[in-house]
Write a structure and sequence with these properties.
23% of the residues lie in helices and 16% in strands. It is an alpha+beta fold.
Amino acid sequence: MKKKILALLLAALLLLPATALAAEADTPAVTAVWNGHTYARFDVGMDWSEAKAYCEAMGGHLACITSEEEQALAETLIGAGPRNHYWIGAYRDGGGFSWVTGEPFSYTHWDKGDPNNVGGHEDAVQILRLPSPLASGSQAMHWNDATDGDAAAGPEEFFAHVNGGFLCEWDSVRDFSSVVTTFNGHSYRRFDEGLTWTEAKARCESLGGHLATITSQAEQTFLEGLIQDGTKYHYWLGGTDEQREGTFAWVTGEPFQFTHWDQNEPNDYSGAGGEDYVHMLRVPNYGQPGSAFGRWNDTTVDCGGIQEQRDYFNVKLTGYICEWDSVRTSFGSQVSGWSLPEMEKASQLGLVPDVLVGENLTKPITRAEFAAVAVKTYEALSGTKAIPIVNNPFTDCTDVEVLKAYGIGAVNGTGPSTFSPDRLLNREQAATMLTRVFKRVTLAGWTLETDGQFTLPYTMPARFADDGEISAFAQDSVYFMAASGIITGISGNRFAPKNVTSAQEAQGYANATREQALAIAVRMVENLK
Protein backbone atom coordinates (compact mmCIF):
# COMPACT_ATOMS: atom_id res chain seq x y z
CA MET A 1 0.00 0.00 0.00
CA LYS A 2 1.52 3.30 -1.02
CA LYS A 3 2.08 5.71 1.85
CA LYS A 4 0.50 9.13 1.71
CA ILE A 5 2.86 11.71 0.32
CA LEU A 6 2.17 15.19 1.58
CA ALA A 7 4.28 17.19 -0.83
CA LEU A 8 2.38 16.77 -4.10
CA LEU A 9 1.68 18.89 -7.16
CA LEU A 10 3.33 22.26 -6.50
CA ALA A 11 2.83 23.48 -10.07
CA ALA A 12 5.37 26.15 -10.78
CA LEU A 13 4.54 28.41 -13.75
CA LEU A 14 6.52 31.57 -13.38
CA LEU A 15 4.55 34.70 -14.25
CA LEU A 16 7.16 37.33 -15.01
CA PRO A 17 6.69 41.01 -14.38
CA ALA A 18 5.53 42.89 -17.44
CA THR A 19 9.02 44.25 -18.10
CA ALA A 20 10.43 40.78 -18.67
CA LEU A 21 9.93 38.68 -21.75
CA ALA A 22 11.06 35.21 -20.72
CA ALA A 23 10.92 32.81 -17.83
CA GLU A 24 14.16 31.69 -16.25
CA ALA A 25 15.62 28.59 -17.81
CA ASP A 26 15.10 26.62 -14.61
CA THR A 27 11.34 27.12 -14.36
CA PRO A 28 9.60 23.72 -14.18
CA ALA A 29 5.98 22.95 -14.91
CA VAL A 30 5.41 21.22 -11.56
CA THR A 31 7.54 20.71 -8.44
CA ALA A 32 7.18 18.81 -5.18
CA VAL A 33 9.17 18.36 -1.99
CA TRP A 34 9.39 14.95 -0.32
CA ASN A 35 11.77 13.33 2.13
CA GLY A 36 14.16 16.30 1.99
CA HIS A 37 14.43 16.18 -1.82
CA THR A 38 12.90 18.44 -4.47
CA TYR A 39 11.41 17.05 -7.68
CA ALA A 40 10.38 18.90 -10.84
CA ARG A 41 8.51 17.95 -13.97
CA PHE A 42 9.60 19.53 -17.25
CA ASP A 43 7.24 19.30 -20.22
CA VAL A 44 10.12 19.67 -22.66
CA GLY A 45 11.10 17.24 -25.40
CA MET A 46 14.77 16.21 -25.23
CA ASP A 47 17.01 13.21 -25.71
CA TRP A 48 17.74 11.39 -22.45
CA SER A 49 21.34 12.64 -22.49
CA GLU A 50 20.18 16.22 -23.08
CA ALA A 51 17.71 15.98 -20.20
CA LYS A 52 20.45 14.53 -17.98
CA ALA A 53 22.77 17.45 -18.80
CA TYR A 54 19.91 19.92 -18.29
CA CYS A 55 19.15 18.69 -14.77
CA GLU A 56 22.83 18.61 -13.86
CA ALA A 57 23.34 22.15 -15.15
CA MET A 58 20.79 23.26 -12.54
CA GLY A 59 22.58 21.44 -9.74
CA GLY A 60 20.34 18.36 -9.75
CA HIS A 61 20.05 15.11 -11.68
CA LEU A 62 17.43 13.08 -13.49
CA ALA A 63 15.06 11.67 -10.86
CA CYS A 64 16.08 8.34 -9.34
CA ILE A 65 13.19 6.23 -8.07
CA THR A 66 14.29 3.81 -5.37
CA SER A 67 11.07 3.03 -3.50
CA GLU A 68 7.34 2.57 -3.88
CA GLU A 69 6.78 5.90 -2.13
CA GLU A 70 9.06 7.72 -4.56
CA GLN A 71 7.30 6.03 -7.48
CA ALA A 72 3.97 7.28 -6.11
CA LEU A 73 5.33 10.82 -5.98
CA ALA A 74 6.59 10.57 -9.56
CA GLU A 75 3.16 9.33 -10.68
CA THR A 76 1.52 12.33 -9.02
CA LEU A 77 3.95 14.73 -10.68
CA ILE A 78 3.48 13.43 -14.19
CA GLY A 79 -0.17 12.39 -13.87
CA ALA A 80 -1.48 15.80 -14.93
CA GLY A 81 1.30 16.34 -17.44
CA PRO A 82 0.66 16.78 -21.17
CA ARG A 83 3.38 14.43 -22.46
CA ASN A 84 3.24 10.72 -23.25
CA HIS A 85 6.36 9.79 -21.28
CA TYR A 86 9.02 11.29 -18.99
CA TRP A 87 12.73 10.45 -18.69
CA ILE A 88 14.11 9.36 -15.31
CA GLY A 89 17.72 8.81 -14.24
CA ALA A 90 18.11 5.12 -15.08
CA TYR A 91 20.27 3.85 -17.92
CA ARG A 92 21.55 0.55 -19.26
CA ASP A 93 24.95 -0.15 -17.75
CA GLY A 94 26.38 -3.18 -19.49
CA GLY A 95 24.02 -6.07 -18.89
CA GLY A 96 21.91 -4.30 -16.27
CA PHE A 97 20.65 -0.87 -15.27
CA SER A 98 22.04 1.83 -12.97
CA TRP A 99 20.91 5.14 -11.53
CA VAL A 100 22.87 8.26 -12.50
CA THR A 101 23.52 8.87 -8.78
CA GLY A 102 25.01 5.43 -8.19
CA GLU A 103 22.19 4.43 -5.81
CA PRO A 104 21.34 0.71 -5.74
CA PHE A 105 19.09 -0.29 -8.62
CA SER A 106 16.90 -2.60 -6.55
CA TYR A 107 13.37 -1.17 -6.79
CA THR A 108 11.82 -1.39 -10.30
CA HIS A 109 8.45 -0.73 -11.88
CA TRP A 110 8.81 -2.08 -15.41
CA ASP A 111 5.97 -2.18 -17.92
CA LYS A 112 4.82 -5.55 -19.22
CA GLY A 113 7.56 -7.06 -21.42
CA ASP A 114 10.14 -4.43 -20.47
CA PRO A 115 13.01 -3.92 -20.54
CA ASN A 116 13.21 -5.47 -24.00
CA ASN A 117 15.98 -3.46 -25.70
CA VAL A 118 14.27 -3.33 -29.10
CA GLY A 119 16.89 -2.86 -31.80
CA GLY A 120 19.69 -3.32 -29.29
CA HIS A 121 19.96 0.38 -28.43
CA GLU A 122 17.25 1.11 -25.82
CA ASP A 123 19.65 2.30 -23.14
CA ALA A 124 17.55 4.97 -21.37
CA VAL A 125 14.52 4.66 -19.07
CA GLN A 126 11.26 6.61 -19.05
CA ILE A 127 7.97 6.50 -17.17
CA LEU A 128 4.93 6.06 -19.40
CA ARG A 129 2.23 8.56 -18.55
CA LEU A 130 0.02 6.78 -21.10
CA PRO A 131 0.11 3.08 -21.95
CA SER A 132 2.27 2.25 -24.95
CA PRO A 133 0.11 1.69 -28.05
CA LEU A 134 2.79 -0.68 -29.33
CA ALA A 135 2.70 -3.18 -26.45
CA SER A 136 -0.25 -5.35 -25.49
CA GLY A 137 -0.95 -5.09 -21.76
CA SER A 138 1.07 -1.89 -21.32
CA GLN A 139 0.09 0.16 -18.25
CA ALA A 140 0.35 3.85 -17.46
CA MET A 141 3.00 4.92 -14.93
CA HIS A 142 5.21 1.89 -15.61
CA TRP A 143 8.80 2.04 -16.85
CA ASN A 144 9.98 1.49 -20.40
CA ASP A 145 13.47 1.26 -21.86
CA ALA A 146 13.84 3.52 -24.91
CA THR A 147 16.46 4.89 -27.25
CA ASP A 148 18.39 7.94 -26.09
CA GLY A 149 18.36 9.59 -29.51
CA ASP A 150 15.01 10.37 -31.12
CA ALA A 151 14.46 7.34 -33.35
CA ALA A 152 10.72 7.87 -33.84
CA ALA A 153 9.50 8.71 -37.32
CA GLY A 154 8.07 12.09 -36.41
CA PRO A 155 6.07 14.21 -33.95
CA GLU A 156 2.99 12.09 -34.54
CA GLU A 157 4.72 9.03 -33.09
CA PHE A 158 3.97 8.11 -29.48
CA PHE A 159 7.67 7.78 -28.59
CA ALA A 160 8.91 10.86 -30.43
CA HIS A 161 10.80 13.03 -27.98
CA VAL A 162 8.64 16.02 -28.84
CA ASN A 163 5.93 14.04 -27.03
CA GLY A 164 8.09 13.49 -23.95
CA GLY A 165 9.42 15.33 -20.92
CA PHE A 166 11.63 14.55 -17.94
CA LEU A 167 11.83 14.63 -14.14
CA CYS A 168 14.67 16.38 -12.31
CA GLU A 169 15.59 15.80 -8.67
CA TRP A 170 17.65 17.81 -6.17
CA ASP A 171 19.03 16.14 -3.04
CA SER A 172 17.88 19.05 -0.88
CA VAL A 173 14.88 21.33 -0.50
CA ARG A 174 14.86 23.91 -3.26
CA ASP A 175 12.83 27.07 -2.62
CA PHE A 176 10.23 27.83 -5.29
CA SER A 177 8.27 30.24 -3.11
CA SER A 178 9.13 33.19 -5.34
CA VAL A 179 7.11 31.77 -8.20
CA VAL A 180 3.44 31.83 -8.95
CA THR A 181 2.11 28.30 -9.36
CA THR A 182 -0.94 26.98 -11.14
CA PHE A 183 -3.48 24.26 -10.40
CA ASN A 184 -6.78 23.49 -12.07
CA GLY A 185 -6.79 26.74 -14.01
CA HIS A 186 -6.05 28.96 -11.00
CA SER A 187 -2.79 30.61 -9.91
CA TYR A 188 -1.39 30.63 -6.36
CA ARG A 189 1.52 32.13 -4.49
CA ARG A 190 2.80 31.55 -0.98
CA PHE A 191 3.98 34.63 0.92
CA ASP A 192 6.27 34.15 3.92
CA GLU A 193 5.35 37.56 5.29
CA GLY A 194 3.82 38.15 8.71
CA LEU A 195 0.54 40.03 8.27
CA THR A 196 -2.82 40.00 10.01
CA TRP A 197 -5.67 38.28 8.20
CA THR A 198 -7.13 41.64 7.18
CA GLU A 199 -3.78 42.88 5.89
CA ALA A 200 -3.17 39.65 3.98
CA LYS A 201 -6.65 39.84 2.45
CA ALA A 202 -5.99 43.41 1.31
CA ARG A 203 -2.56 42.48 -0.04
CA CYS A 204 -3.94 39.65 -2.20
CA GLU A 205 -6.72 41.86 -3.49
CA SER A 206 -4.25 44.63 -4.34
CA LEU A 207 -2.48 42.08 -6.54
CA GLY A 208 -5.69 41.25 -8.36
CA GLY A 209 -6.43 38.05 -6.45
CA HIS A 210 -7.82 36.95 -3.10
CA LEU A 211 -6.81 34.85 -0.10
CA ALA A 212 -6.81 31.22 -1.20
CA THR A 213 -10.03 29.24 -0.92
CA ILE A 214 -10.08 25.45 -0.73
CA THR A 215 -13.09 23.63 -2.12
CA SER A 216 -11.80 20.08 -2.73
CA GLN A 217 -9.37 17.49 -1.43
CA ALA A 218 -7.28 17.90 -4.59
CA GLU A 219 -6.88 21.63 -3.94
CA GLN A 220 -6.10 20.90 -0.28
CA THR A 221 -3.36 18.46 -1.28
CA PHE A 222 -1.96 20.95 -3.76
CA LEU A 223 -1.74 23.72 -1.16
CA GLU A 224 -0.13 21.35 1.32
CA GLY A 225 2.63 20.99 -1.24
CA LEU A 226 2.82 24.77 -1.59
CA ILE A 227 3.44 25.38 2.13
CA GLN A 228 5.56 22.26 2.68
CA ASP A 229 8.90 24.08 2.43
CA GLY A 230 7.64 27.41 3.79
CA THR A 231 9.27 29.27 6.67
CA LYS A 232 6.10 30.14 8.63
CA TYR A 233 4.20 27.94 11.11
CA HIS A 234 0.82 28.59 9.47
CA TYR A 235 -0.72 30.36 6.48
CA TRP A 236 -3.89 32.45 6.17
CA LEU A 237 -6.71 31.19 3.96
CA GLY A 238 -9.76 33.12 2.78
CA GLY A 239 -12.19 31.60 5.29
CA THR A 240 -13.98 33.56 8.01
CA ASP A 241 -17.09 33.57 10.22
CA GLU A 242 -16.82 37.25 11.07
CA GLN A 243 -20.27 37.95 9.59
CA ARG A 244 -22.09 35.17 11.43
CA GLU A 245 -20.45 33.36 14.32
CA GLY A 246 -20.07 29.65 13.67
CA THR A 247 -20.96 29.90 9.97
CA PHE A 248 -17.77 30.02 7.96
CA ALA A 249 -17.67 31.43 4.45
CA TRP A 250 -15.05 31.95 1.75
CA VAL A 251 -14.17 35.50 0.74
CA THR A 252 -15.16 34.63 -2.85
CA GLY A 253 -18.63 33.48 -1.91
CA GLU A 254 -17.93 29.89 -2.98
CA PRO A 255 -19.76 27.21 -0.98
CA PHE A 256 -17.95 26.38 2.28
CA GLN A 257 -18.57 22.65 1.97
CA PHE A 258 -15.18 20.95 1.92
CA THR A 259 -13.38 21.32 5.28
CA HIS A 260 -10.13 20.06 6.74
CA TRP A 261 -10.25 21.19 10.37
CA ASP A 262 -7.60 20.27 12.90
CA GLN A 263 -8.40 18.17 15.96
CA ASN A 264 -11.21 19.80 17.99
CA GLU A 265 -11.43 22.77 15.60
CA PRO A 266 -13.01 25.20 15.01
CA ASN A 267 -13.42 26.02 18.69
CA ASP A 268 -13.46 29.83 18.95
CA TYR A 269 -11.01 29.37 21.82
CA SER A 270 -10.69 33.03 22.70
CA GLY A 271 -14.46 33.26 23.25
CA ALA A 272 -16.84 36.08 22.41
CA GLY A 273 -16.53 35.30 18.73
CA GLY A 274 -12.88 36.34 18.52
CA GLU A 275 -11.47 33.44 16.51
CA ASP A 276 -13.07 34.31 13.21
CA TYR A 277 -10.30 33.61 10.67
CA VAL A 278 -8.93 30.43 9.11
CA HIS A 279 -5.32 29.44 8.61
CA MET A 280 -3.58 26.23 7.52
CA LEU A 281 -1.00 24.67 9.83
CA ARG A 282 2.43 23.89 8.45
CA VAL A 283 3.71 23.03 11.92
CA PRO A 284 1.20 21.03 14.01
CA ASN A 285 -0.18 22.84 17.06
CA TYR A 286 1.85 21.45 19.98
CA GLY A 287 -0.91 22.54 22.36
CA GLN A 288 -3.52 20.38 20.64
CA PRO A 289 -3.13 16.58 20.89
CA GLY A 290 -3.63 15.02 17.48
CA SER A 291 -2.89 18.22 15.58
CA ALA A 292 -1.49 17.58 12.10
CA PHE A 293 0.23 19.23 9.16
CA GLY A 294 -2.10 20.88 6.64
CA ARG A 295 -5.10 21.01 8.98
CA TRP A 296 -7.15 24.17 9.49
CA ASN A 297 -7.52 26.22 12.65
CA ASP A 298 -9.66 29.22 13.54
CA THR A 299 -7.80 32.07 15.23
CA THR A 300 -7.94 35.80 15.85
CA VAL A 301 -7.31 38.39 13.16
CA ASP A 302 -3.72 38.86 14.37
CA CYS A 303 -3.22 35.19 15.28
CA GLY A 304 -2.93 36.26 18.90
CA GLY A 305 -3.92 32.83 20.12
CA ILE A 306 -3.36 31.62 23.64
CA GLN A 307 -1.10 33.56 25.97
CA GLU A 308 0.94 30.50 26.91
CA GLN A 309 1.43 29.66 23.20
CA ARG A 310 2.68 33.02 21.98
CA ASP A 311 5.76 31.24 20.58
CA TYR A 312 3.39 29.41 18.20
CA PHE A 313 0.35 31.66 17.66
CA ASN A 314 2.07 34.84 16.56
CA VAL A 315 1.46 37.03 13.52
CA LYS A 316 5.21 37.00 12.83
CA LEU A 317 4.95 33.25 12.38
CA THR A 318 2.00 33.50 9.98
CA GLY A 319 2.20 33.74 6.20
CA TYR A 320 -0.57 33.74 3.63
CA ILE A 321 -1.54 32.25 0.28
CA CYS A 322 -2.97 34.34 -2.56
CA GLU A 323 -5.04 32.89 -5.36
CA TRP A 324 -5.90 34.26 -8.79
CA ASP A 325 -8.92 32.84 -10.58
CA SER A 326 -8.61 32.04 -14.26
CA VAL A 327 -9.57 35.33 -15.84
CA ARG A 328 -10.72 36.51 -19.23
CA THR A 329 -10.45 39.98 -20.64
CA SER A 330 -13.36 42.04 -21.86
CA PHE A 331 -12.38 40.92 -25.39
CA GLY A 332 -12.60 37.24 -24.44
CA SER A 333 -8.92 36.29 -24.15
CA GLN A 334 -7.56 34.15 -21.32
CA VAL A 335 -4.77 35.87 -19.37
CA SER A 336 -2.76 35.54 -16.19
CA GLY A 337 -3.98 37.47 -13.17
CA TRP A 338 -0.99 39.83 -13.18
CA SER A 339 -1.55 40.96 -16.78
CA LEU A 340 -5.30 41.66 -16.75
CA PRO A 341 -5.03 45.45 -16.15
CA GLU A 342 -2.42 45.84 -18.89
CA MET A 343 -4.35 43.68 -21.32
CA GLU A 344 -7.44 45.85 -20.81
CA LYS A 345 -5.25 48.90 -21.36
CA ALA A 346 -3.87 47.29 -24.54
CA SER A 347 -7.45 46.89 -25.74
CA GLN A 348 -8.29 50.50 -24.93
CA LEU A 349 -5.22 51.68 -26.86
CA GLY A 350 -6.20 49.55 -29.86
CA LEU A 351 -3.10 47.35 -29.60
CA VAL A 352 -4.78 43.93 -29.64
CA PRO A 353 -4.81 42.49 -33.17
CA ASP A 354 -7.72 40.35 -34.31
CA VAL A 355 -5.56 37.23 -34.34
CA LEU A 356 -5.24 37.41 -30.52
CA VAL A 357 -8.84 38.26 -29.66
CA GLY A 358 -10.40 35.39 -27.73
CA GLU A 359 -7.10 33.46 -27.58
CA ASN A 360 -5.04 32.21 -24.64
CA LEU A 361 -2.56 35.05 -24.17
CA THR A 362 -0.38 33.08 -21.76
CA LYS A 363 0.94 31.06 -24.72
CA PRO A 364 4.17 31.96 -26.60
CA ILE A 365 3.79 34.49 -29.40
CA THR A 366 4.81 33.72 -32.99
CA ARG A 367 6.60 36.02 -35.44
CA ALA A 368 3.40 36.55 -37.41
CA GLU A 369 1.40 37.39 -34.28
CA PHE A 370 4.02 39.84 -33.10
CA ALA A 371 4.12 41.43 -36.53
CA ALA A 372 0.41 42.15 -36.04
CA VAL A 373 1.17 43.70 -32.64
CA ALA A 374 3.92 45.81 -34.24
CA VAL A 375 1.42 47.08 -36.82
CA LYS A 376 -1.04 48.06 -34.09
CA THR A 377 1.77 49.81 -32.20
CA TYR A 378 2.77 51.74 -35.33
CA GLU A 379 -0.82 52.82 -35.93
CA ALA A 380 -1.21 53.95 -32.31
CA LEU A 381 2.02 55.96 -32.39
CA SER A 382 1.60 57.47 -35.86
CA GLY A 383 -2.16 57.92 -36.03
CA THR A 384 -2.15 56.45 -39.54
CA LYS A 385 -3.10 53.05 -40.94
CA ALA A 386 -0.45 50.65 -42.21
CA ILE A 387 -0.85 49.46 -45.82
CA PRO A 388 0.20 45.94 -46.87
CA ILE A 389 2.90 45.70 -49.52
CA VAL A 390 1.53 44.70 -52.92
CA ASN A 391 4.31 42.37 -54.04
CA ASN A 392 4.60 39.67 -51.40
CA PRO A 393 8.30 38.71 -51.06
CA PHE A 394 7.54 35.60 -48.99
CA THR A 395 6.72 32.14 -50.27
CA ASP A 396 5.68 30.81 -46.85
CA CYS A 397 3.33 33.57 -45.68
CA THR A 398 0.38 35.51 -47.06
CA ASP A 399 -0.74 37.04 -43.76
CA VAL A 400 -1.99 40.59 -44.37
CA GLU A 401 -0.66 41.85 -41.04
CA VAL A 402 2.80 40.50 -41.86
CA LEU A 403 2.66 42.27 -45.22
CA LYS A 404 1.66 45.48 -43.42
CA ALA A 405 4.57 45.08 -41.01
CA TYR A 406 6.90 44.50 -43.93
CA GLY A 407 5.50 47.54 -45.69
CA ILE A 408 6.33 49.85 -42.77
CA GLY A 409 9.77 48.28 -42.39
CA ALA A 410 9.09 46.65 -39.04
CA VAL A 411 10.02 43.14 -40.18
CA ASN A 412 12.06 41.33 -42.76
CA GLY A 413 12.45 37.67 -43.56
CA THR A 414 14.36 34.79 -42.07
CA GLY A 415 15.70 33.99 -45.55
CA PRO A 416 15.65 35.38 -49.08
CA SER A 417 11.99 34.42 -49.55
CA THR A 418 10.83 33.13 -46.16
CA PHE A 419 9.27 34.77 -43.13
CA SER A 420 8.75 31.71 -40.86
CA PRO A 421 5.43 33.03 -39.51
CA ASP A 422 4.93 30.25 -36.96
CA ARG A 423 8.40 30.45 -35.47
CA LEU A 424 8.39 31.71 -31.88
CA LEU A 425 9.63 35.23 -31.29
CA ASN A 426 12.73 35.92 -29.18
CA ARG A 427 13.62 38.99 -27.14
CA GLU A 428 16.12 40.59 -29.52
CA GLN A 429 13.68 40.22 -32.41
CA ALA A 430 10.97 41.94 -30.36
CA ALA A 431 13.35 44.80 -29.50
CA THR A 432 14.38 45.16 -33.15
CA MET A 433 10.85 45.12 -34.58
CA LEU A 434 9.56 47.74 -32.15
CA THR A 435 12.62 49.97 -32.56
CA ARG A 436 12.01 49.94 -36.30
CA VAL A 437 8.40 50.96 -35.65
CA PHE A 438 9.61 53.90 -33.55
CA LYS A 439 12.12 54.95 -36.20
CA ARG A 440 9.49 54.80 -38.92
CA VAL A 441 7.22 57.06 -36.88
CA THR A 442 9.82 59.59 -35.67
CA LEU A 443 12.62 59.72 -38.28
CA ALA A 444 11.64 61.29 -41.59
CA GLY A 445 12.90 59.34 -44.57
CA TRP A 446 13.76 56.20 -42.59
CA THR A 447 13.38 52.88 -44.33
CA LEU A 448 14.64 49.44 -43.47
CA GLU A 449 17.13 49.69 -46.33
CA THR A 450 18.53 53.00 -45.04
CA ASP A 451 18.47 52.02 -41.37
CA GLY A 452 22.25 52.29 -41.02
CA GLN A 453 22.11 56.01 -41.82
CA PHE A 454 19.88 56.80 -38.84
CA THR A 455 20.65 56.80 -35.11
CA LEU A 456 18.47 57.29 -32.07
CA PRO A 457 19.54 59.62 -29.25
CA TYR A 458 19.67 57.77 -25.91
CA THR A 459 22.03 57.33 -22.98
CA MET A 460 23.77 53.99 -23.31
CA PRO A 461 23.00 51.83 -20.26
CA ALA A 462 25.50 49.40 -18.74
CA ARG A 463 26.28 46.44 -20.95
CA PHE A 464 24.37 43.27 -20.22
CA ALA A 465 26.32 40.31 -18.88
CA ASP A 466 25.31 38.31 -21.97
CA ASP A 467 26.09 41.17 -24.39
CA GLY A 468 28.15 38.77 -26.49
CA GLU A 469 25.02 36.75 -27.28
CA ILE A 470 23.15 39.72 -28.76
CA SER A 471 23.19 39.57 -32.55
CA ALA A 472 24.90 42.45 -34.34
CA PHE A 473 21.67 43.52 -36.08
CA ALA A 474 19.91 43.82 -32.70
CA GLN A 475 22.58 45.56 -30.59
CA ASP A 476 21.37 49.14 -30.99
CA SER A 477 17.69 48.16 -30.69
CA VAL A 478 18.26 46.15 -27.50
CA TYR A 479 20.01 49.01 -25.72
CA PHE A 480 17.54 51.61 -26.98
CA MET A 481 14.66 49.55 -25.60
CA ALA A 482 16.51 48.99 -22.32
CA ALA A 483 17.36 52.70 -21.98
CA SER A 484 13.72 53.60 -22.66
CA GLY A 485 12.39 51.15 -20.06
CA ILE A 486 10.47 49.19 -22.69
CA ILE A 487 12.21 45.82 -22.55
CA THR A 488 14.56 45.45 -19.61
CA GLY A 489 16.89 42.67 -18.55
CA ILE A 490 16.23 39.61 -16.44
CA SER A 491 18.09 38.39 -13.35
CA GLY A 492 21.88 38.54 -13.28
CA ASN A 493 21.93 41.65 -15.52
CA ARG A 494 21.20 39.46 -18.55
CA PHE A 495 19.04 40.35 -21.53
CA ALA A 496 18.45 36.78 -22.77
CA PRO A 497 18.38 37.91 -26.42
CA LYS A 498 17.88 34.50 -28.01
CA ASN A 499 18.09 30.81 -27.25
CA VAL A 500 21.71 29.75 -27.73
CA THR A 501 21.56 26.17 -26.42
CA SER A 502 19.21 23.28 -27.07
CA ALA A 503 18.12 23.42 -23.43
CA GLN A 504 17.21 27.10 -23.73
CA GLU A 505 15.38 26.40 -26.97
CA ALA A 506 13.40 23.60 -25.36
CA GLN A 507 12.55 25.69 -22.31
CA GLY A 508 11.65 28.84 -24.29
CA TYR A 509 14.24 30.78 -22.28
CA ALA A 510 14.27 33.83 -24.59
CA ASN A 511 10.74 33.60 -25.96
CA ALA A 512 7.84 35.93 -25.20
CA THR A 513 4.24 35.14 -24.37
CA ARG A 514 1.42 36.95 -26.10
CA GLU A 515 0.48 38.86 -22.94
CA GLN A 516 4.09 39.92 -22.35
CA ALA A 517 4.33 41.18 -25.93
CA LEU A 518 1.15 43.23 -25.53
CA ALA A 519 2.39 44.61 -22.20
CA ILE A 520 5.55 45.78 -23.97
CA ALA A 521 3.47 47.45 -26.67
CA VAL A 522 1.46 49.26 -23.98
CA ARG A 523 4.64 50.49 -22.36
CA MET A 524 6.05 51.65 -25.68
CA VAL A 525 2.97 53.69 -26.52
CA GLU A 526 2.83 55.19 -23.02
CA ASN A 527 6.56 55.98 -22.81
CA LEU A 528 7.31 57.11 -26.35
CA LYS A 529 4.14 58.62 -27.81
